[in-house]
From TrEMBL, chain A:
Residues annotated as domain ABC3 transporter permease C-terminal: 322-439
Provenance organism: Flavobacterium profundi
Designated name of the protein: FtsX-like permease family protein
Biased composition (Basic and acidic residues): 226-258
Region (Disordered): 226-263
UniProtKB/TrEMBL annotation, chain B:
InterPro entries: AAA+_ATPase (IPR003593), ABC_transporter-like_ATP-bd (IPR003439), ABC_transpr_LolD-like (IPR015854), MacB-like_ATP-bd (IPR017911), P-loop_NTPase (IPR027417)
Top-level taxonomic group: Bacteria
Keywords, alphabetical: ATP-binding, Nucleotide-binding, Transport
GO molecular function: ATP binding; ATP hydrolysis activity; transmembrane transporter activity
Name the record gives this protein: ATP-binding cassette domain-containing protein
Keyword Iron-sulfur in record: no
GO cellular component terms, semicolon-separated: plasma membrane
PROSITE patterns documented for this protein: ABC_TRANSPORTER_2
């Protein structure tokens, strides 16, 4: 009954109540979003750098290199020569080296040339179909398959660069041969193919636009001839080319020391993810590589730390803002309760006349404040998640990064709930005590 | 039945009220009159247990409310004393009916809706029962106050200037309701007033000097 009365009292002054609830809702929503974002962001970031000790790539911003090659969000720093990269890839310190070649996208999703090791690194199994083997065979990440409704056997054309509006490469179409299982990592939003696919795609690209086909001629004369007549049909071209290209790839790996002839090809890749057998390399390589080559080697862990600490300032600022709003909320409840207490003195006196105990009046004021807290907290939690859903969908468009709004971090949100209750309690304390010590006779006499 | 003995009261050390003894049986009425500042309302509050007298005893049936603790006093007042104030006070967020129910809940822990409706009917305001008190006229509000005071079948019904803000017609109605209902429910009715319109109606008068 007291709770019911408290509830009715809250809604008797709807404007006051709505103001308080809006303040609390805003504050709780911001904090909820921050808590969820921070945790999921860190999880996503850290899960993606597992097993990557260094990233080898073109000189430029180290952070950009990490973002582009590990998280697939930024533009690449540039290309590096595959042959010079291979010197480092085959170094005995290195346990595993995964080359990445990026060139195209399909509807905004990156098409990444790599080796099957890449899937292995992300512990992505093939849920349907098989691994890419030949050129232009692609394995599609789980989320893309879901969003673009791609199935094994589908074909599509890629567009150049990282913009969905880029020029369409319509000489070759990619064929989906496999769909990767969901991992919750970047691979879910990638289309993977062999590195030679990327090379081959762009060799023709260059040829078409600049009339240069020396690359083709050098490493594959037949290919070159084909190139002139490629209007005849892409399929033909592809069939002819594939086995050849594949052998070539193996050749490269086998005769890696014999780099002179391969250098002449000028094949380029975008970056290499390195995992070390000897951890010394992680410390020494960045300097050695910077001094001796035109490449850079960057530790993703360090860059991510740097990034998170940069974000951290923003997150902290937002958090202080949220706590500030919560403080204002506390003050607003306090003022609302305090001013209505004056108007409601008679009401309280009356309740006492009717047999209410002092404690019941204290409880009434407290419950009013705490009800507001609970309502505001529930709204805030829901609103925060709605906001996160929007953030998630826009982050997904821009960065291929999605967040799960339905996750509950009981520990932190529990603390937030307790904090809310505490604010409500403190705000109601003085009005409640005043109600407790109300002098009925005096109040009624001076009414 | 209510009877008092040797009640004195003081707000400050200099000023002291010596209040006359009174005895009022169930179903009968006593009128307390006197000029302003003579302690009429104070007397009423003491009788209602809202103020604690310095000395003396107040016997309601067999209970001396002066000897009760604060908590017991609250509970006893809720069950046994009904008070009608000069200006009607209500819980403004609750409807008329809910206000009455609240009175019974606070005293007994149960919502006595049946009695509430019956009282509203007797007072001819049953059609207002789902309105907020602020939507009622002053005369109607005063009748709701009477209904609330009678909710728990009190042994004593105290009325503090129940007619001062009412016009002649309403004043008469309120007084007749108070007297008939207190007789019907066997409550001792004590009215504090300086309203000359009602003084003549009662023979049993105490004047504070």
């Amino acid at each position: 009954m007291i709770t019911k009365l408290a509830w009715r009292n809250i809604w008797f002054k709807p404007l006051n109540t709505i103001l308080s609830i809006i303040l609390l809702t805003a504050s709780v929503a911001i904090i909820t979003v921050l808590v969820l974002l921070e945790k999921q962001f860190e999880e996503k970031f850290n899960s993606n750098i597992d097993g990557v000790d260094l990233v080898l790539g073109a000189q430029g911003s180290p952070l950009q290199l990490i973002l582009s090659s590990v998280y697939q969000v930024d533009a690449p720093t540039g290309n590096i020569n595959y042959d010079s990269a291979k010197v480092w890839m085959q170094h005995p310190f290195v346990k595993k080296a995964i080359p990445l070649a990026f060139g195209d996208n399909y509807k905004g999703f990156k098409i990444l040339g790599t080796t099957p090791d890449y899937l292995e690194k992300y512990e992505a199994s093939i849920s349907q179909g098989k691994l890419f083997e030949k050129n232009f065979e692609v394995v599609v990440g789980a989320e893309i398959a879901d969003k673009l409704k791609l199935k094994v056997g589908d074909t599509f054309f890629g567009s150049h660069g990282d913009a969905a509006e880029g020029e369409v490469h319509d000489h070759y179409d990619y064929t989906v041969v496999g769909i990767a299982a969901t991992t919750g990592k970047v691979i879910d939003n990638l289309i993977l193919c062999t590195i030679p696919s990327v090379w081959q795609m762009h060799d023709t690209h260059v040829e078409e636009h600049e009339g240069e086909h020396h690359d083709e001629e050098i490493h594959n004369p037949i290919h070159g001839e084909e190139g002139h007549v490629h209007e005849e049909g892409d399929e033909h071209y592809q069939h002819e080319h594939d086995p050849d290209e594949h052998n070539h790839e193996h050749g490269e790996e086998l005769h890696s020391e014999d780099t002179s002839s391969l250098n002449g090809e000028g094949k380029e890749i975008t970056a290499v993810l390195l995992q070390f057998r000897n951890k010394m390399g992680i410390v020494t390589w960045p300097r050695i590589i910077a001094q001796n080559t035109k490449m850079q080697a960057v530790s993703p862990a360090i860059e991510v730390n740097r990034l998170v600490s940069m974000f951290g300032i923003g997150i902290d600022a937002l958090r202080y803002l949220a706590y500030g709003i919560m403080l204002i909320y506390g003050i607003s409840i306090f003022i609302a309760l305090f001013t209505t207490l004056k108007e409601r003195k008679n009401e309280f006196a009356l309740l006492r006349v009717n047999g209410a105990k002092r404690m019941q009046l204290l409880a009434l004021v407290m419950i009013e404040s705490l009800l507001l807290c609970v309502v505001g907290f529930v709204f805030g939690t829901v609103l925060g998640r709605v906001a996160l859903m929007f953030i998630s969908s826009s982050a997904e468009e821009d960065f291929k990064l999605s967040f799960n709004p339905y996750e509950f971090i009981w520990e932190k949100e529990g603390v937030l709930f307790l904090l809310t209750i505490l604010v409500g309690f403190l705000a109601a304390l003085i009005p409640a005590v005043k109600a407790y010590y109300l002098n009925i006779s005096k109040t009624l006499t001076h009414a | 039945m209510i009877s008092t003995k040797n009640i004195t009261f003081s707000y400050t050390k200099e000023q002291a009220f010596i209040l006359p003894d009174l005895h009022c049986d169930a179903g009968s009425t006593i009128l307390i009159t006197g000029d302003s500042g003579k302690g009429k309302t104070t007397y009423l509050h003491i009788l209602g247990g809202l103020l604690r007298p310095k000395t003396g005893s107040i016997l309601i049936d067999t209970t001396d409310i002066v000897a009760l603790s604060e908590r017991q006093n609250d509970a006893f007042r809720g069950k046994n004393i009904g008070i009608v104030f000069q200006k009607s006070h209500f819980v403004s967020a609750l409807t008329v009916l809910e206000n009455l129910e609240m009175a019974s809940w606070l005293a007994t822990g149960k919502k006595n809706s049946v009695r509430a409706k019956k009282l509203l009917e007797q007072l001819d305001i049953v059609n207002q029962s789902n309105k907020l008190p602020s939507q009622l006229s002053i005369g109607q509000q005063q009748r709701v106050s009477i209904a609330r005071a009678l909710m728990n079948e009190p042994k004593v019904l105290l009325a503090d200037e129940p007619t001062s803000s009412l016009d002649d017609k309403n004043a008469e109605k309120v007084i007749s309701l108070l007297t008939t209902l207190s007789k019907e429910y066997k409550a001792a009715l004590i009215i504090v007033t300086h309203d000359s319109r009602i003084k003549e109606k009662f023979s049993n008068r105490i004047t504070l000097i």
